[in-house]
Amino acid sequence: MTIRKSHILYIPTWYPSPIDVQSGVFIQKHAQAAARHYKITVLFAYTANESYTNYKQDGGLKELITTFKKSRFSLLNKARLFLHYFQQFRKIKEVDIIHAHVWSNKTLFAYFISIIYNKPLFISEHWSGYQQHIGFMQIALMKLVFRRAKKILPVSNFLKNLMQRKGIKGSFEIIGNIVKKQQAKVIKGEVFRFLIVADLRDEIKNISSVIHSFQELKINNCTLNIIGDGPDKSLLQSMTKSNNIQFLGRMKNEDVLTEIAQHHAIIINSRIETFSVVALEALAAGKPLIYTQCGGPTELIPSNSGFSIPIDNKKKLKSAILKMINDYQRFDPIKLQQSVNDFSEEEISNRLKQTYSSILKL
User: Do 93 and 218 share a domain, yes or no?
Assistant: First the structure.
């Protein structure tokens, strides 16, 4: 007799797709980890002019990625989103838990079908927007939706505190992102290589300050590479006057990991980060960091893993860049890698199993 595995439906706001292979990779890794123990279906749709449908099955994980037509009118666009998701949901059977990831209209869909079909609702959160002003009506709606969730799963205590300050209440449990250890690579050559991996939104990531700092320091035999794309790419490129600063574009996660291994150190100059997967991926490859005291990294990164600097402090940033070059040999790659032991796929997979089973057994 075959025992049916419990079936969990993931409804993420961000997820890797043809238009953005980097978006929500950390959510995909959670889905892959949960699929060790459960049947997982990911339902993800995005707006596009052309129709696209992709069904992908890999062991216990099934990904259903589709498109729907975007309207110029906000209300009509929301109606189309809900209609499209309901149509796709009808193809999915015997769901035991509905798990939404990152607050958006898609979370509302997850909320409604959890009520209609009387299924437990989980919500994971990565979004840094809780630090910003959120309107009264949206806060009221968020409180209503999160109140229904059996579990609220922020990726850090920093994010949990931000959510609670907005008045969101519920059963919180911290489950971080997954980071896989890489082989520590010794880099040969005289050129010292820094790397930034980020969504190019300068208001949040403050990449412009790093570019200006590099250009003002005028360091010989030193390069800065920037992986990512976003609304401020053209702006950032326009302020780049040095040949030793290069934009490498958007990359798949496996290619990003390859690039991290080929650089000496990673710079995270953000004004806010709820977790920072990039920081831990760097440590997993034995690479030290320059990082701002912007929330998640301060909580998760050991103090001996690099240089921690205040937010929006170019003087400290410049000093840290020079210190990293001069003191690089003091960092032991093996010790840096030990920082990520709690974020292995096996560890997070077991954490997810525990939190799901606590509800499934009721």
Answer: no
Together in a domain, 350 and 333: no
- The reply to whether 1 falls in a domain is no
Per run of 10 residues, the mean pLDDT along the chain (length 362 residues) is 81 94 93 96 90 88 92 86 92 92 96 96 96 94 97 96 96 95 82 96 97 95 96 96 94 94 96 94 96 93 93 97 96 92 94 95 67
Both tokens of residue 350? 């077991």
**Whole-model pTM?**
0.88
CB atoms within 10 A of CB 89: 21
| Torsion angle of C-alpha atoms 275, 30, 163, 112, degrees rounded to 10 | 150
**Total domain count, the chain:** 2
| CB of 126 closer than 8 Å to CB of 26 | yes
Token code pair at residue 108: 């509302």
Please choose, from the candidates 186, 174, 199, the residue with its C-alpha nearest in 3D space to the C-alpha of residue 343.
174
Task: Provide the CATH number for the domain around residue 327.
Answer: 3.40.50.2000
CA distance linking residue 299 with residue 348, whole number of Å: 18
